[in-house]
Design a protein that fits this description.
Length: 204
């Protein structure tokens, strides 16, 4: 059986300039999520997290490499069916639009009727509204039904760290356009730059 998600030799390069092109930012990633999991994602603002999520969901086009979901290249799936494979909820749970590059008739139908990968990009958790328990139960529900969940938080409170440590089974740390993969929270803390990023929250 094919892994749920494979990110193969992924690279996105942004350039600027009309006559002399100059690279302004690049993102590189390669990892595999073979089975249902909740994956925690952290990294400084501007490090490339949202760009990564846009590429995973097919709304942004990689410069090199590909994203394969359940054996199918996401960017070869019909535009309106890509969210049946990977769906990206950005902050207030808005779904990102897909950037169209080729005619839809040249693309393939999605192999799934319901998203296999759910990306929650900095959801608005608050201890005042009672919403946290509902969302955490929803993440576990998705996982128990064979889905992959990416949970991206920018920790600014101790309970954000608790959420990541207690609910995520593996981690990605995105920094300066590089995506590093760690199997445990302890190995995440040991990775260069993570403690500096978390500051005092690293000791929570």
């Amino acid at each position: 059986m094919a892994p749920i998600l494979e990110v193969q030799g992924l690279k996105k390069v942004y350039t600027r300039g009309l006559w002399s092109r100059r690279q302004t930012f690049s993102l590189s990633a390669e990892f595999t999520v073979p089975e249902p999991q909740i994956v925690g994602v952290m990294g400084p603002n501007g490090s490339g997290k949202t760009t990564l999520f846009e590429i995973l969901s097919g709304s942004n086009i990689p410069t090199h490499g590909k994203v394969v979901c359940s054996g199918q290249d996401v960017h070869q799936v019909k535009y309106r069916q890509r969210d049946r494979m990977v769906i990206h909820y950005h902050q207030s749970y808005q779904i990102r639009r897909v950037k169209k590059t080729v005619p839809n008739f040249m693309l393939r139908p999605a192999p799934s009727e319901y998203p296999l990968v759910h990306i929650f990009d900095e959801p608005q958790f608050s201890t005042q509204d009672g919403y946290i328990g509902f969302m955490l139960n929803f993440f576990q529900h998705l996982r128990s039904h064979g889905r992959v969940v990416f949970l991206c938080l920018h920790p600014c409170e101790p309970f954000h760290v608790d959420i990541m440590r207690e609910n995520c089974e593996r981690f990605l740390f995105v920094s300066k356009g590089e995506v590093a993969e760690m199997p445990t929270y302890d190995s995440l803390l040991a990775y260069p730059g993570v403690r500096e990023y978390l500051g005092a929250l690293a000791n929570c």
